[in-house]
Specification:
The protein is mostly helical. It has 26 helices and no strands. α14 crosses α17, α22 runs antiparallel to α23 and α23 runs parallel beside α25.
Length: 472
């Protein structure tokens, strides 16, 4: 009887354990299943992984789509980017909140969601699943769901890392705490490294670790200290290495921390520090009185070893890319143009990944005036972006995003050649075609009308018009 159905549903909602027979009746009737409370559904889901998977799957797809929409947003800004939202704000998002409600205090359902996330991460290599793994745990932490937080061995580590992500920096105190968790993994419990590596593979964690690494390297230059002498820096590298090795570890089921390559510490990082020194030297030189110096050009070459590291070493590549983002944010055009050629070939094409290109396009808005210069545009577009546009649609999209934002700064002749080079092909996706059409419309609006072009401007100054008495 439909009239008493709400009463029955309310009673079932408050039963700690609904009899299995009744749960089967609810499951068999689509309308009843739809109408029953989430408290009842949890009892159904915990013994029906496939059904639970059907409920969770659309939410996971929505989550990935939301992340990609932010990365490809037409609003390009150095202040408001993918990493701008605080961790607490991010986990107020619809998907995280719905999943949190679906899980409640049910450890079995929580484990199922984690298994879905691991499987999807393995299948797609999409790092946004790692973000969701951390956000879900911290959402349960916010609600003080101790039934789950106390049994997840990653809880305290994730909580500490969450605080670092909020500050976008790993300070000394938290570094010690994080190191304690990693060192505390006991023999026979190494499997936890798989989950810790997934937490560290979250782009928000990688961003925090990489930014902290760049800051540490700058501090070491001022202290005349080598990277191998800094325990804090070595810990950051250890965590970066663990995060970047997450997919391999979960795929192989070999739960061991990746070995750190000695040359990363003894050769690559000192090389980056030498770039910082080059900048300081050049800047000081520019401030000296002109009679005391000849014109010293900015170093234009890069060591071959630097390019090789970016191609062959994942951690070196990640840190190198963040250093390039750092100098771009500082509006350091000379350093940017010097290092840009090294980005054409990088480890796993990391320089053409969405997260890096999203951040780079945002930072390039600070160098807006340089887009009027032929040399700058040729280096950036012909030397970097266009080398990958034809084979990577995401790069095509990011270039069009950038031009939509900065087209008015680019010299007309260069803009025309870029418009031709970026014209979509038959194989191009709808997103590229849409962006290209938006750019074409903007450029059409900027073109002077035929009347303005053909009319010869008068050399005489116009006489001021004097109103006649009749017109008053």
């Amino acid at each position: 009887m439909p009239s008493i159905q709400p009463v029955v549903m309310c009673v079932m909602k408050h039963l700690p354990k609904v009899p299995e027979k009744k749960l089967k009746l609810v499951m068999a009737d689509k309308d009843l299943y739809k109408a029953c409370a989430v408290e009842v559904k949890r009892q159904i889901w915990q013994d029906n992984q496939a059904l639970f998977g059907d409920e969770v799957s659309p939410l996971l797809k929505q989550y990935i789509l939301e992340k990609e929409n932010i990365l490809f947003s037409n609003d390009i800004s150095v202040l408001h980017n993918f990493f701008s939202l605080s961790p607490k704000t991010r986990r107020q998002g619809e998907v995280v909140q719905k999943l949190t409600q679906m899980i409640g205090k049910n450890v079995k359902l929580y484990d199922m969601v984690l298994q879905f996330l691991r499987t999807l991460f393995l299948r797609t290599r999409n790092v946004h699943y790692c973000t969701l793994r951390a956000e879900l745990l911290m959402s349960l932490h916010d609600l003080e769901i101790s039934e789950i937080c106390t049994v997840d061995p990653c809880h305290k580590f994730t909580w500490c890392l969450d605080a670092c992500i909020r500050e976008k920096f790993v300070d000394n105190k938290r570094a010690r705490e994080l190191q304690g968790f990693l060192d505390g993994v006991k023999k026979g419990q190494e499997q936890v490294l798989g989950d810790l590596s997934m937490i560290l593979c979250d782009p928000f964690a990688i961003n925090t670790l990489a930014l902290s690494t760049i800051r540490h390297l700058q501090d070491l230059v001022g202290q005349d200290t080598l990277p191998r002498e800094s325990p804090d820096l070595l810990l950051l590298l250890r965590m970066l290495s663990l995060g970047q090795g997450a997919w391999d570890m979960i795929d192989s089921q070999v739960f061991k921390e990746p070995k750190m390559e000695v040359e990363l510490i003894t050769k690559f990082l000192p090389m980056l520090m030498s770039f910082v020194v080059d900048d300081h030297t050049f800047n000081v030189d520019q401030k000296l009185p002109s009679e005391e110096k000849g014109p010293i050009p900015y170093p234009s070459t890069i060591p071959e070893a630097f390019t090789k590291f970016l191609q062959e070493n994942r951690i070196a590549c990640e840190i190198g890319l963040y250093y390039i983002l750092h100098i771009t944010k500082q509006r350091n055009k000379n350093a940017f143009l010097r290092l840009l050629p090294a980005l054409v070939e990088t480890f796993s094409d990391l320089a053409f990944s969405d997260i890096f290109l999203h951040l780079l396009t945002g930072n390039l808005t600070l160098l807006g005036d340089e887009f009027a210069l032929e040399e700058f545009c040729t280096s950036l577009f012909d030397g970097f972006f266009l080398t990958a546009c034809s084979r990577k649609e995401n790069v095509h999209r990011h270039v069009l995003r950038l031009l939509l934002h900065l087209h008015h700064k680019v010299a007309p002749a260069k803009l025309e050649s870029l418009q031709k080079a970026l014209e979509p092909t038959k194989q191009s996706g709808e997103a590229v075609k849409e962006l290209y059409n938006q750019l074409t419309e903007k450029l059409e609006l900027r073109k002077p009308s035929p009347a303005e072009v053909t009319e010869t401007p008068s050399m005489e100054l116009p006489l001021p018009t004097v109103p006649t008495p009749a017109s008053r």
